[in-house]
Amino acid sequence: MSNKRLLIVTGPQGSGNHVFSRLFSLHPFVKGWDALQDEYWIPSDLEPFADYWVNPERLDEFDFSLCEYWVANVSVPFVYDGVKQVPKILEFANKCKQLGIEVVIAIIVRDQNINSAQQMRVRKEITLPIAQDYYYTHLLPSNFDVHFLDHEAFFLHREHYLKYCERILNFPVAWDDKKIMNFIDKDANSKYTKYIDEYWLDQHVWRGCQSKSQRGIK
To answer: C or N terminus of the chain, fewer CB within 10 Å?
Structure first.
């Protein structure tokens, strides 16, 4: 089981866990949440590793021989068998390490205001602090490589950002696959944003530009 590498993708509820799990599972050398290539959304307790976020000691039973690269995805908190709970990500990672698998962890970052608004719309509660507390207390102080994935950077730069992720994570990413935009027709943040007619700082900026123009400054 040597030379195997597993990428754990995690983020607060509604930060883009399904999106990034789909993206990182696209590469032919990677085994991940394959069903997401055909479905926009699937319940979290149907993710291939769902049982092991609750019972990481059972990972001895999992067959890692099928592939060299793996993607595992879970939100914090996540719903398993109808119950909301915090997944045991650190214990999961430690068990994989015992099995000889190299683990890298990637935490998804989404604008906190939009993330909270999305959680209220879908979950009727804001769970962002639960995720932050878990990441700060358990993952960031751990001995595992922990990186941050930028939700906005993907939607802005798309394949260019994924190419960057491949290098930073040292993990194969199908950044040139046309299917990276499957199920994505526009920026996921657009429904939470609206145009502002005027802001208090606008007049200061406008006057500053006018003043520079009068002095011949470009």
So the answer is: C
Q: Among residues 163, 144, 107, 123, which one has the least CA distance to residue 14?
A: 123
- In angstroms, how far is the first alpha carbon of the chain from the final one? 62
How many other C-beta atoms are found inside a 10 Å radius of the C-beta of residue 193? Answer: 12
Per-residue model confidence as pLDDT tens digits over 134-153: 999 999 999 999 999 999 99
Q: Which residues pair with 76 in a beta bridge?
A: 12
Chain centroid to Cα 82, Å, comes to 22
pLDDT band at 38 (very low <50, low <70, confident <90, very high): confident
Cα 198 to Cα 187, 190, 192, 213: the distances in Å are 24, 19, 18, 22
Residue 1's pLDDT band, with cuts at 50, 70 and 90, is: very low
State the pTM of this model: 0.86
Whether the CB-CB separation of 216 and 199 falls below 8 Å is answered with: no
Give backbone dihedrals phi and psi of 80, rounded to 5 degrees, phi first.
-125, 120
Closest CA to 107 of 82, 124, 122, 87: 87
Q: How far is 175 from 164, CA to CA, in rounded Å?
A: 9
Cα 34 from Cα 45, distance rounded (Å): 14
In sign, the C-alpha dihedral spanning 55, 102, 60, 43 is positive
Element (H, E) at 204: helix 202-214
pLDDT digits (tens, 9 = 90+) for 49-66: 999 999 999 999 999 999
Structure tokens at 118: 């999305």
Residue 93, SS3 per DSSP: helix
